[in-house]
Fold this sequence. Notes:
This protein has helices at 16-27, 32-42, 47-62, 76-89, 92-101, 122-131. Helices cover 54% and strands 0% of the residues. Helix 1 runs parallel beside helix 3 (47-62) and helix 3 (47-62) crosses helix 4 (76-89). With 135 residues, the protein is an all-alpha fold. The model has no long low-confidence stretch (mean pLDDT 90). The longest helix is centred in the middle third of the chain and has 16 residues, at 47-62. It is built from six helices and no strands. The chain is globular.
Amino acid sequence: MTTPALTPALTPAPAPGVQLVSxxxxxxxxxxxxxxxxxxxxxxxxxxxxxxxxxQGTVRSFLGQDLGQEGCAVDWRRTLDxxxxxxRLGAVGVDEVIVTSFLGDLPHxxxxxxxxxxxxxxxxxxxxLRLRPGG
Length: 135
């Protein structure tokens, strides 16, 4: 009698937007509290919804207003650097979240924090300009 070969259970890879959120929280720990609250209230990771908190935390950090959880501040520079790196990859699901739910929700010229737009890396700056030619 032969023993059947054991095959490891295949776990599907997370959707690109969900992976983007996980990687962002790992890179910018100041988003951990917002992430935990988001998962608790939503029941799962919804990248476009979570990115509203990312925009708000990033802009508050830019304005010097965000202390984050337990003194762990959201670092706006680290956030922009991470999103620029991800934008350079050109991954469809990732770009959709970054363009639609980050760049699209950045402050407008008359709003506090609009200066963060001048700090975008070249890939995100080009996408921002296409998305909002008037700022």
